[in-house]
Write a structure and sequence with these properties.
The protein is mainly β. The chain is built from no helices and 11 strands. The protein has strands spanning about 5, 10-15, 20-25, 35-40, 45-50, 55-60, 65-70, 75-80, 90-100, 105, 110-115. Strands 2, 4, 5, 6, 9, 10 and 11 form a 7-stranded mixed beta sheet that branches. It has a 4-stranded antiparallel beta sheet with strand order 1-3-8-7, with no helix packed on it. Strand 5 (about 45-50) and strand 6 (about 55-60) form a beta hairpin.
Length: about 120
């Protein structure tokens, strides 16, 4: 079972940027489809972005603002977030992804808090 450690969250003003990182355990990382999800207060966790070996997919709400990437040599997946909005405020989680359903396929990590002020 893969273990995931997210980092890079923080507090920024609207229009600012953050880069999240997620380090995954295990030797099979390069074979995993990976993704980012988020959960805002009082809301269900939702899909944000995913990447297969090379192909990215994004939720409509973040297209053109967020970029997902991966470094297989470092077992790490990144989420570059630009033009942040207050509605992006949430705890962000990474996970393995079931590419057919865009749902999480492993246990959750602790997440990293992103707070965007207006």
């Amino acid at each position: 079972q893969v273990q995931l450690v997210e980092s890079g969250g923080g507090s920024v003003q609207a229009g600012g940027s953050l880069r999240l990182s997620c380090v995954a355990s295990g030797r099979s990382f390069s074979w995993y489809d990976m993704g980012w999800f988020r959960q805002a207060p009082g809301k269900e966790r939702e899909f944000v972005a995913a990447i297969s070996r090379v192909t990215p997919r994004y939720a409509d709400s973040v297209k053109g603002r967020f970029t997902i990437s991966r470094d297989n040599a470092k077992n790490t997946v990144y989420l570059q977030m630009n033009s942040l909005k207050p509605e992006d405020t949430a705890v962000y989680y990474c996970n393995r992804v079931d590419w057919t359903t865009m749902t999480a396929a492993a246990d959750w990590g602790q997440g990293t808090q992103v707070t965007v002020s207006s």
